[in-house]
Write a structure and sequence with these properties.
It is a single chain. The protein is α/β, with parallel strands linked by helices. About 40% of the residues lie in helices and about 20% in strands. The strands form four sheets. It has a six-stranded parallel β-sheet with strand order 2-1-3-4-5-10, with helices on both faces. Strand 3, helix 3 and strand 4 form a beta-alpha-beta unit. Helix 1 packs across helix 6. The two termini are about 35 Å apart.
Length: about 280
């Protein structure tokens, strides 16, 4: 039986993994929340691995407070880089394949086409820099790994853009949303399903992969769709990033090219609108 450790089990992706795992009872799943397993504690990792033989480690644990990272650089790098180094070292010692979730924020967002895995990385904020450093550690230490870069993650769990919009839709009659940041949302459960597919199919084409839902939109487009599909009567106005300053800069264009992932796994990736429908049904039911 395949044994899989999932870290960060209390986060969006971790909770979606728990749902997906119910359909894969032929896999032994071990879920650890950040309280149950502190990935920044190398000794705790080694102890856990000494007591179990994991075939895969799916790292969903991360420091994801993008704006806060600007003033908490040390903490962001500890979780997103140094802890990832510990994970990679432990995986190497125990012959475990690491599947690590990264971000579109490793790019600067200046291209006018979707980013490919081999495009030059140049993060423009601390969060992106910390995630890139984690990627670099993995590539230095391991030969057998999967790094999956994703973007605009949301789900029925935790805090995310969709749930924030639904809350604001109940509180306001009008809202302004930036229309000059372009990308594609990712439903965390779709991402979890893809990672499970990697585990089940056991491909040997290791490396970096991109994954998000299909489609190209702005945050403004996404907000409008959320309210329309949820039947909320609220006016959504376009605004620009300059009018909505945040501590951390965001890439203006971070669409991800998924060709490599689709070819490797023979995937049909859901459109963002279809996945949004599924999430809204769960949140609003």
């Amino acid at each position: 039986m395949i044994s899989v450790l999932v870290t960060g089990a209390n986060g969006q992706l971790g909770q979606c993994f728990k749902d997906v795992a119910l359909y894969h009872k032929d896999i032994e799943w071990i879920f650890k929340t950040s309280k149950e397993l502190d990935i920044t504690d190398h000794k705790s990792l080694q102890t856990l691995f000494s007591q179990n033989n994991f075939n895969y480690l799916v790292n969903c644990a991360a420091y994801t407070a993008v704006d806060k990272a600007e003033s908490e650089k040390e903490k962001a790098f500890l979780v997103n880089a140094e802890a990832v180094k510990y994970l990679a070292q432990t995986c190497k010692e125990k012959d475990t394949t690491l599947i690590h979730v990264s971000t579109d924020f490793v790019f600067d967002g200046t291209k006018d086409r979707a980013y490919r895995e081999d495009d030059r990385t140049l993060p423009i904020n601390i969060y992106g820099a910390s995630k890139l450093k984690g990627e670099e550690y993995i590539q230095e230490i391991l030969d057998e790994y999967f790094i999956i870069r994703t973007s605009w993650v949301y789900s029925e769990y935790g805090r995310n853009f969709v749930k924030t919009m639904l809350r604001l839709g109940k509180e306001r009659d009008e809202i302004g949303v930036v229309s000059d940041q372009i990308g594609s949302p990712t439903y965390a459960k779709d991402l979890a399903n893809v990672i499970v597919e990697i585990i089940v199919s056991n491909p040997d084409e290791y490396g970096i992969y991109n994954y998000s839902n299909e489609g190209t939109i702005s945050w403004y487009d996404f907000a409008k769709a959320i309210f329309e599909q949820a039947n909320f009567d609220i006016k959504v106005s376009r605004t620009t990033t300059d009018n909505y300053p945040t501590p951390a800069k965001r890439p203006s264009y971070s669409l991800l090219d998924k060709s490599k992932m689709k070819e490797a796994l023979k995937l049909e990736i859901p459109n963002w609108k279809d996945s949004l429908d599924k999430v809204l049904i769960k949140i609003l039911e």
